[in-house]
Please model this.
Amino acid sequence: MTQQHEGAVLELDLGPIAHGGFCVARSEGRVVFVRGGLPGEKVRARVLDDSKASHWFAATREVLVADEHRVDPVCPVAGVCGGCDFQHVQIDFQRELKRRVVAEQLQRIAGIDWEGAVEPADADEDGLGWRTRMHYRTRDGVPALRAFRSHDLVAVPAEGCPISHPSGRAAARDAAAGAEEVQVVVSGTGADRTRVSVLADGVLVEGPATVTESCGPLQWKVDAGGFWQVHPRAAKVLTAAVLDGLQPRQGEKALDLYCGVGLFAGVLARAGARVEGVEISRRAVTLARRNVTGRFIVGRTERSMRQLSSRADLVVLDPPRKGAGRKVVAEILTRRPRAVAHVACDPASLARDLSLFAEGGYRPASIRAFDLFPMTHHVECVAILVPATED
Model:
């Protein structure tokens, strides 16, 4: 592996946005994925990774010709920290860039022409202060995050990470003084998010070990260190999209795959469905059984689906970033549900899964995208799939 170009500064004309938050440029015929730029800009960028012969990664260091949507980042370490990709981009245009990525991935991988928009979680959102769950390393006794494509640590500003929920910033500073790793969870019901739980090196040092999260009239118990959507409005936005797409009917059988503590199972049960779920985390399943009336099993989804009912009217799946894959999709198809809701945090894996569903005779009736991770390149999608023979 050659390192002779790492650290070199290149003058580049930036092309289209690509998956991962990069702009695509070329240098002497080689593709360079550039962080911190905007399509159409001319920049000087430092090469960060030249380990691949076909493409390099670089980060913008100087903007020579700026796009009109460029703004000054709120955070002084935004260009170095790996947490935010788009602090230099006006918030509405961040969503436009994400829209382009979703459309490109769906068309290129799945052959789907998508003309939707990336919807904000809140129309008045400025993209800051939303992240209710933060995982820090520490550097010199202060909270820190990984640098982009590096194991180096970048200390967050003294006033806290700007995208972290304000209620947890002081607790993060306090815990970091005596720990190497800190998790901060801000929880509460509705707009009242003032309860803070802190784990320092895996040990609870502040707040409840089990927190309460809500969505409308429903509540779920979640381990402080367990999984729950990090945006305060994410649960409401996603469950509304799933319910609107599936239109559950009284008495229908519904499967919740990768169910966690039962978020989607809970709203489906409230709508009258009989629910079953599967989740790899034993603790999450224990909580799901407390949170929701239904049947929940522990195991890897791809290995455990045959323990679930052999027929289902509805299926919800919220897989990890890599997607569901062929085995899970095949198991869903054997049940011939009347509708499937695929909740995806990665447009490329969503497109791959949609291609697999298409092979089995299911097409997307709708695909919606949501900006639940402002200032980052991440985007959440909800695809509703139905048998292709339906009008």
Q: What stands out?
A: Helices lie at 91-110, 169-176, 234-246, 263-270, 282-291, 301-304, 326-334, 347-359. The mean pLDDT is 95. DSSP finds eight helices and 22 strands in the chain.
